[in-house]
Specification:
Length: 152
Amino acid sequence: MQNRWLVSLTALLIVLTLVMESVANQRKSLKAILNEKKDHRRVLLLYGRDASSGSPGQHYLIDQQEALHEHKEAMAERDLDVIVLIASDLQEPDRQFLMQSEFKLVPHEDYMGWLIGKDGGIKQTYKKPVPAEELFNLIDSMPMRRQEAKKP
């Protein structure tokens, strides 16, 4: 039973990784990536520890990605990208950026999520996965999103 669960989990991670961006696979710094998205895209930035740390962080990452997986159209409509950061894969400059900037990452956190608006500002911080509907409701309440929704 556990092997079956592990195989299912591994397959899900592979599929979700293909859909979501991973900073570890980028050559640019996290700061540069976020700067490029500013004024064009909203970002849900997710950070979690890997399973070997014994923390729930990786499970939270999977739960959050699963919650969003079936809402690709809604995410596209809201110009929302998801960036996943795994603690063990994070480059030191990116870790320092998260710790010393407005993200205020505490290194021992198991999981963190930040909703970043098109203006580059942090709109909400999460310590647990958030339901897609709650995330979309928050985005839809933002003045810039309301203006976008009015445009034909």
